User: Fold this.
Amino acid sequence: MAINVKVNVLFFASLKEDLGVSEIELDVSDRAGRSDLLDSLTSELGSDCVSPLMAENVSIAVNRSIEKGEFVLKSGDEIAFLPPITGG
Amino acid sequence: MAINVKVNVLFFASLKEDLGVSEIELDVSDRAGRSDLLDSLTSELGSDCVSPLMAENVSIAVNRSIEKGEFVLKSGDEIAFLPPITGG
Amino acid sequence: MDEIRVQTDDFSVADEYEACGAAAGLDCGAIATFIGLVRHADGDSKVEGLHLEHYPGMTEASIKNIIEDARNRWSLQHVRVVHRIGTLPAGSQIVLVVVASSHRPDAFAACEFIMDFLKTEAVFWKKEIRSDGELWIRSTSGDYERRDGWDDGVSSVGE
Amino acid sequence: MDEIRVQTDDFSVADEYEACGAAAGLDCGAIATFIGLVRHADGDSKVEGLHLEHYPGMTEASIKNIIEDARNRWSLQHVRVVHRIGTLPAGSQIVLVVVASSHRPDAFAACEFIMDFLKTEAVFWKKEIRSDGELWIRSTSGDYERRDGWDDGVSSVGE
Assistant:
């Protein structure tokens, strides 16, 4: 049996508007990776969330650091979905 | 007989210090050119003025416009001797 | 210590300039400053305002990285970046960059570098509130070209 | 109307910035500013101050020419140049350039261009008052290189 841990997921800007939510607490299996995270999000938010979250220009940050490749989640991690940024 | 006209001659910065004067009124022959001007200045200020005034990096402005070549003076002209400039 | 602030409140250019002068010290010969403002017009559309979001913590860290990169390239005495968030009506101040250095080439280059990287690397999101609707803004191809220009020797002009 | 002033009095960065914002109007998105200060040190010599002279009328005309050249290269809304003369103790403000434009590349480039040309083309004379004597300053080879750099395409980075 997989042990579930809690992580925090944040959505910013256009993603927050598209999904209608800015932050959710999510149960994921301990040591969950990228695809496990997406499965948990789909269970929670419905399959409509897949297309905006997986868009090519959306970055994922784990604990405020952009992760371009695979990652492994642990309890208390903060995951953020970032649409294209621009400041100044 | 040459008619003499009055012109005003200004010296700036290091030239003012070297010559000990900032401005003189000078009699020059009407339609005097570059060498006539220098002759009149030498008569007025002594031959020591030639070397600083004729230094390669000194520009001459007639009525506030730099003159690199020959010029012809008329009554009331303002001639200025400009050592190398730098602002900012 | 450089100053990095992300805030909803407006900033005072006079106060930031004074604080920079005080922090920069006796050998400061050059202060370059840039202020970005919300324009009323963008092409044919009238812009009523801008809405800015950030990611607390990550945004400040992204600005800190940009300043560190600038400090690795130029000799700088003090840097201040103040960036506003929230809803800003047209005409508002958005961002301020102040850079102090002994020499003007360094101050100019670093100030422009920081602005170019704020456009593409700082963690902000910007929505234009127009007369004909709202639009999330993205960095333009020009923004990326300017950022990438710092890699191929443009920066050496000032060195 | 652009603003050109040569004065013995100090200037207020806050006042000049505000006046620029007011003159630039609704489509202003970028204000770039540069302030030059009298440094206390220059190499090994301690600088106690600077003495600046100008040629009334001709100096202002030379600044006007520089601004016209900048306006021919970039799209600018407003330009202010304030340059001090007289005896300025170390730490004093010497010169201010403020440029407003719709877009930041134009504001940055024009501000830097104007400073580069003030160094070599504006009719001022500058004497450093050092602990070990007085010295009339000349434009450096670096100053001329920066000026000449505007001829070979560097300016096109911002266009």
Remarks:
- Chain C touches chain B through one residue (CB under 8 Å).
